[in-house]
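Design job #97: recover the sequence.
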């Protein structure tokens, strides 16, 4: 027994000695594993030399390689990128030689969208696998299901193309951390994940789960401490099973759609919570008081919800561990509760967009506050200097979009400020010179106020300034040279002021980091040498409204990173340089409108331009190939000529607005519009196009505006246009179109403007046109339309609305990131007797014009239902009957023209009740009687009533008894009088006829009585004449009926 103990003791001493020697010796790399690492390196792309240390024999000393201190085996590879140093290429299977590798970290690299290698599933010893943010894509190999020893799996930030989360992940039962967020997963969350009962952290955020509820099985993961489900399109009720997660520290349900439910009360039972985010998830109702139990909470975000105007709950003031509180844009009301002043650990407080009017002084107790956001409220005044005295630690202050007025405060009270936003208020007076003492300031935005005076020179002392926005004020004087000393400045916006003088190279001498420059809409003179080489590389330049010309600025050629270029109205009178199209491969927005740039448009077909506006210049020559990715192209108001067939050479998948109007383009309109399937707005007006309107326009199923007026187009409106159900405006006026107005036009239920003016259309007005219930402008004038006007205008619901401001917005708003583009619909028509083009104010006009046709019959009674109509023109037709008696119901009429018809009767007294009437023309009809007495009707010239011989009264000559008696006669008598007859003449004729009758009648009758043979001969002749007269009348009536029926059918 003693012998055995001795041997055991000696063995232990020997073992301890070996361990001591091993620990003291240097761990050496195992050769086979070194070769495996070099093989792995050979397949990688390492442009920045991240693995430059991977040489020599000692691989355990290489960057990112960790070896066992005991065995020397490689046990961990931590190759996450150190930007900009990133790895790419292929992952070699030599990894399989690293049999002891248990930790693999490749995050934040770029493997170019390759699939995750299948062989990784054979590395069964792995405990930690991090492939996040490394640009893997495709399906996830099922072999990863073999990694049953994994404790942590991170696939966050890849693109797996909308596949469901693999079910095999549920077999990795040792997992404690699973991160699948932002990886384009979709479908349902597999129930197999419910097997992962050891999870401490689960991240499914930023995916697309298609409106399914949060899975109930998550409530069985009782060891969870972190649960991230934000922005994954979850909806419905939040399962109460989540109340079992009493060990949670972080819960993020933000940016989902829970359909207006209340915040679940069971969240108050998660007493270990330190971070709770419910931002933007459509919660409503009250904030449950159970949240008062969350005494460990350090961050609470309830912003972007709708709590229905309730006050901010008082119990939030008892959460004294809070460091971050965000309640912005959640429809809280009342006042900011003073109890928030108890949150003395608070570092950030967000209360924007809630309508608060005052700031309670208790907030001055928040001496640790770093961020205060009170923007988009209704603050009228606040003691900013006092806030500054107490909150000296404040770094970010946002009071933008309130009603603050008066002078700007003494900003020296904010010595720690790095960001100050006071934009969109009512501050007046000068910018205080003391602003130069904010030595820590990086972001200053005081735009959109009423500040005046000079830009203070002291701004040049803000050596850390990166953003300076002074736009939309009333600043004057010159741009101070001291701005050129702000070497860290990245964004400078002085636009929309009254700055003047010259801007030279000296203003930019040290602005090496400048990325965005906006001096637009100031009368500045850009006094810059043509050979200037700027120190900066801009991505945004706006000099619109400045005096840049007359020459095109050559220094732009150096700006290879330019994305936005705005030179509208810059007084450039030069040819477009050939290098414009290749100036910047990143160019997306090109605005050169309202200059006098000449020459041909450069070839832009290989660019990535999305929005191009070259309108109102002097470009000439043929239409070039258009940028293939453009969404908006405006080349209107130039001198482009020849055909536009070149648009057929490229398929434009993104084009939404194309404006080629007011050029000299000619030839036929090409028949290839199916290549522009996203087109919303097409304007080819005021050119020299001929031929028929192409049928392929019917393939534009999204088109809303079709402008083709002022050309030489012929033929009929193509039948295929009936497929364009979203059309709001059709303007083909001023062409040579023939045929009848198609009945399918009544199926365009979204139509607001229909202008067929000035063509050669014939036939009748189809009654189907009254199906256009939202019509605001209907112009069928100057055609050959005949027959009667259909009596169905009571269907026009928009024209029945009397509110002059009510109408559809004739505007397109298209967004490109943060940039908004507005395109205004417009149309040309007669207004108050003049041909006028309307654009921005088109929405307020409600007009019907059927003038200069061959319409007949009565004015339909249903016209009186259009009480919101502004202009009615039925002149130069063959209308008969009377003015409708209820015309006074058309209370919004500003212009009424019924001239040159055959209307008769009296002028209705209700016409005098239209107080808005500014233009009236009833001339050249057969009206009679006295003009109704009113201030309105007597204000017009006599020419408004001329050519109506039976009319009298102011402004025409006064009425007499004879004229009034004449007005009561039959309208046929009035017509005879109009032809030259008068009452005295008729008297003379009557007397002569009486004497003639007496002598003639009795002379003939006496002969008949005295002589029988005369009687027989006379009555025989009378019978024959009666028969002849009857036949003639019958034939005439039959012909007249056939003619009338044929006319009505047309």
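Job complete. Output follows.
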């Amino acid at each position: 027994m003693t012998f055995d103990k001795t041997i055991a003791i000696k063995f232990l001493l020997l073992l301890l000695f070996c361990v001591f020697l091993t620990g003291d010796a240097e761990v050496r790399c195992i050769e086979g594993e070194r070769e495996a690492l070099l093989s792995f390196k050979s397949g990688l792309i390492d442009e920045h030399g991240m693995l430059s240390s991977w040489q020599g024999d000692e691989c355990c000393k290489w960057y990112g390689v960790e070896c066992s201190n005991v065995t020397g085996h490689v046990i961990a590879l931590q190759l996450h990128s150190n930007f900009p140093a990133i790895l790419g290429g292929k992952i070699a299977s030599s990894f399989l030689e690293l049999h002891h590798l248990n930790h693999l970290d490749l995050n934040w690299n770029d493997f170019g969208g390759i699939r995750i290698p299948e062989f990784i599933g054979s590395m069964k010893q792995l405990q930690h696998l991090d492939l996040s943010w490394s640009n893997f894509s495709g399906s996830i190999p099922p072999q990863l299901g073999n990694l049953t020893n994994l404790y942590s799996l991170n696939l966050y930030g890849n693109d797996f193309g909308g596949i469901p989360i693999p079910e095999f992940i549920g077999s990795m039962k040792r997992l404690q951390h699973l991160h699948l967020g932002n990886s384009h997963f979709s479908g349902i969350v597999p129930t197999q994940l419910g097997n992962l009962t050891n999870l401490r952290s689960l991240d499914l955020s930023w995916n697309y789960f298609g409106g399914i509820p949060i899975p109930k099985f998550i409530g069985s993961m009782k060891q969870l401490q972190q649960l991230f489900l934000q922005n994954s399109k979850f909806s419905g009720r939040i399962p109460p099973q989540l109340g079992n997660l009493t060990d949670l520290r972080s819960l993020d349900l933000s940016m989902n759609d829970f359909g207006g439910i209340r915040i679940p009360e069971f969240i108050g039972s998660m007493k270990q919570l330190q971070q709770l985010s419910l931002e933007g998830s459509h919660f409503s109702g009250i904030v449950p008081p159970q949240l008062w139990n969350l005494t460990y909470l350090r961050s609470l975000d309830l912003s972007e919800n709708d709590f229905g105007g309730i006050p901010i709950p008082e119990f939030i003031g008892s959460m004294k561990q809070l460091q971050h509180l965000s309640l912005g844009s959640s429809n809280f009301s009342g006042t900011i509760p003073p109890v928030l002043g108890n949150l003395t650990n608070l570092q950030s407080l967000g209360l924007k967009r809630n309508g608060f009017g005052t700031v309670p002084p208790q907030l001055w107790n928040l001496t640790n506050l770093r961020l205060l956001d009170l923007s988009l409220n209704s603050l009228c005044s606040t003691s900013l200097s006092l806030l500054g005295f107490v909150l000296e630690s404040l770094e970010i202050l946002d009071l933008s979009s309130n009603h603050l007025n008066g002078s700007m405060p003494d900003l020296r009270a904010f010595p720690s400020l790095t960001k100050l936003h006071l934009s969109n208020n009512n501050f007046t007076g000068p910018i205080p010179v003391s602003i130069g003492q904010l030595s820590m300031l990086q972001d200053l935005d005081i735009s959109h106020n009423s500040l005046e005076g000079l830009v203070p020179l002291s701004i040049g002392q803000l050596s850390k300034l990166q953003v300076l926005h002074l736009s939309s004020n009333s600043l004057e004087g010159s741009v101070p040279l001291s701005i050129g000393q702000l070497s860290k400045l990245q964004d400078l916006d002085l636009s929309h002021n009254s700055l003047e003088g010259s801007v030279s190279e000296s203003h930019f001498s040290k602005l090496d980091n400048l990325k965005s420059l906006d001096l637009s809409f100031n009368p500045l003179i850009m006094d810059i040498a043509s050979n200037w080489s700027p120190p900066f590389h801009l991505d945004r330049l706006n000099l619109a409204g400045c005096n840049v010309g007359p020459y095109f600025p050559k220094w732009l050629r150096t700006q290879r990173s330019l994305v936005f270029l705005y030179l509208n109205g810059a007084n450039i009178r030069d040819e477009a340089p050939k290098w414009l199209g290749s100036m910047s491969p990143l160019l997306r927005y090109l605005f050169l409108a309202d200059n006098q740039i000449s020459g041909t448009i450069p070839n832009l077909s290989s660019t990535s331009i999305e929005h191009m506006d070259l309108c109102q210049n002097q470009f000439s020559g043929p239409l070039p190939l258009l940028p293939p990715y453009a969404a908006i192209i405006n080349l209107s108001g130039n001198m482009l000529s020849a055909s536009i067939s070149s648009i057929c050479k490229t398929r434009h998948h993104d084009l939404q607005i194309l404006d080629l109007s007011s050029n000299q383009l000619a030839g036929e309109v090409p028949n290839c519009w199916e290549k522009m399937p996203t087109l919303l707005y097409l304007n080819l007006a005021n050119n020299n196009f001929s031929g028929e309107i192409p049928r392929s326009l019917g393939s534009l199923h999204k088109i809303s505006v079709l402008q083709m007026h002022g050309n030489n187009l012929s033929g009929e409106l193509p039948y295929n246009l009936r497929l364009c159900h979203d059309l709001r405006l059709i303007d083909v006026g001023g062409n040579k179109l023939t045929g009848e107005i198609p009945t399918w036009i009544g199926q365009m239920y979204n139509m607001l403007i229909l202008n067929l003016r000035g063509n050669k259309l014939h036939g009748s007005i189809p009654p189907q046109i009254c199906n256009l219930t939202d019509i605001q402008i209907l112009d069928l004038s100057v055609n050959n339309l005949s027959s009667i006007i259909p009596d169905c205008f009571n269907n026009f619901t928009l024209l029945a609305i009397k509110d002059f401001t009510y109408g559809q917005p004739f505007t397109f708003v298209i967004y490109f990131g943060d940039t908004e583009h507005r395109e205004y619909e417009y149309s040309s028509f007669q207004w108050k007797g003049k041909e006028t083009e309307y654009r921005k104010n088109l929405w307020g006009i409600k007009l019907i014009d059927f003038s200069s046709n061959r319409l007949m019959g009565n004015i339909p009674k249903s016209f009186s239902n259009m009480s919101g109509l502004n202009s009615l023109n039925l002149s130069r037709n063959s209308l008969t009957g009377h003015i409708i008696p209820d015309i006074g119901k058309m209370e919004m009429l500003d212009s009424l023209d019924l001239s040159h018809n055959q209307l008769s009767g009296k002028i209705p007294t209700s016409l005098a009740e239209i107080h808005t009437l500014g233009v009236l023309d009833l001339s050249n009809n057969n009206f009679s009687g006295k003009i109704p007495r009113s201030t309105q009707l007597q204000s017009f010239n006599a020419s408004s009533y001329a050519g109506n011989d039976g009319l009298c009264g102011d402004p025409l000559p006064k009425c007499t008894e004879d004229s009034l008696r004449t007005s009561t006669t039959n309208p046929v008598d009035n017509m005879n009088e109009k032809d030259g007859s008068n009452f005295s003449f008729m008297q003379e004729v009557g007397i002569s006829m009486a004497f003639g009758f007496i002598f003639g009648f009795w002379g003939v009758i006496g002969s008949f009585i005295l002589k029988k043979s005369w009687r027989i001969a006379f009555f025989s002749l009378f019978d024959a004449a009666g028969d002849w007269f009857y036949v003639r009348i019958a034939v005439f009536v039959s012909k007249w009926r056939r003619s009338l029926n044929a006319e009505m059918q047309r």
